[in-house]
Amino acid sequence: MSKRGTTRVIKKPKTINLALQGGGSHGAFTWGVLDGLLSHDAIKIGWISATSAGALNAVALAAGLASGGAAAARAKLQDVWDAVAKASAPEYLRLNPLLAGISRSGALAQMTQMFSPYDLNPLGIDPLRRLIEAHIDFELIRTTKGPELLIAATHVASGTPRFFRRAELTIEAVLASACLPMLQQAVEIDGQSYWDGGFSANPELLTIAAESPIEDTLIVQLVPLLRPQKPTSAREIGGHVSHLTFNQPFLRELEQIETIRRLAARRRGLFGDAPDERDAKIAAHRFHLIEAGRFTGSLTVESRGKPELELLNYLRSAGATEAGKWLDRSWRDVGHRDTAEIAQRLAAHRATAYPATADPAVALAISKPDAAA
Q1: What are the DSSP calls for 263-292, one per residue?
Q2: Which of 93, 163, 173, 225 has CA atoms 20 to 30 A from the CA of 99?
Q3: pLDDT by residue (tens digit) across 102-124?
Q4: Among candidates 207, 150, 215, 158, which has minimal Cα distance to 177?
């Protein structure tokens, strides 16, 4: 890869999968990453695994690609996030002067601890539905060849993830993937209730590694693994609980991937043979990573629910910049080697609880990826 002036030139066409985390308004960072990737014709998209805000980005990307390729996908993402920026308080709040005032005062979080969405919003009004209906053609997505989709939602009764694929994708699947139970009524699909996919898969990595014919996946990580600030107020504690809850599925999947890799290597060393086909594919899969943590880590958890134009523009610009850095740093590795360094990142994460075991070099690589690169 080389540069001519300020224009990045990608010499060799390659295809990558995408794994897009949820994070509410912080999903504007992912928009910037996608816009940066799509600006290069040589980059093709394989499968897309996505949750919540990641699901919104995924269907906008898929709808745009289906209607007119990369240029149309960039325009579709722009239209969707413009609409997000224009959306003010949810309609069921604006229709109630008392609740509208509470929303503006910042006390809505306390209200949701006392009243459920079935109390505050008995009609189940969801402004996201109207936004998606206006911009996403699901029939086009289902019937046009394009990237396979894995849109995660959480089955309320069991807590297990369900993955809606391209051929079955509907607006309900995306709404389910983004359904926060303290703010929205559960989404009903085929007689079953679903909540935000972030409770169970944020995003799904094992399935995409095991089933996709493309052997490289770029993870766009919105939620930092660590939030070192000590929460003390009720608001901060509630936000940190949310942070921990939505991070656990991602950490669990990383741990599973690394365990499969270790066991596969041990089996080859001891017996000279390979594990079963699924585990072999997961062990060999190459992961790559773009992190938003140094941009989102200093933001409050509540900012995920506040799609203010200044914030969206800031995160979109940051995402595009980080995509450019990743292309310069790691594009040549796609198809050749893993660059996400999952084992090192997990070790650094564990070491925060046991500082005596920390490796300073690993800690630097995790906290300052640009310095390590």
Answers
A1: HHHHHHHHHSS---HHHHHHHH-EEEEEE-
A2: 173
A3: 344 444 455 445 544 544 444 45
A4: 150
* Phi, psi at 97, each rounded to 5°: -55, -40
> Please, which residues have CB within 8 angstroms of residue 1's CB and are 6 or more apart in sequence?
8, 9, 10, 11, 327, 328, 331, 332
Burial of 67 (0-12, 13-18, 19+ CB in 10 A): middle
Distances in whole angstroms, Cα of residue 284 to Cα of each of 19, 165, 275: 17, 24, 11
Give the C-alpha separation, 280 to 257, whole Å. 11
Polymer length of the chain: 373
What tokens appear for 373 in the block?
A: 């690169």
Indicate the average pLDDT of the chain: 84
pLDDT tens for residues 343-361?
A: 999 988 888 877 655 554 5
Rg of the chain over Cα atoms, rounded to whole angstroms, equals 21
CA distances from residue 249 to 39, 56, 125, 256 in whole angstroms, order as listed: 31, 19, 29, 10
SS3 of 164, please?
strand
For residue 13, whether the previous peptide bond is cis, meaning omega lies within 30 degrees of 0, is: no
Query: How distant is the alpha carbon of residue 212 from its chain centre?
Result: 18
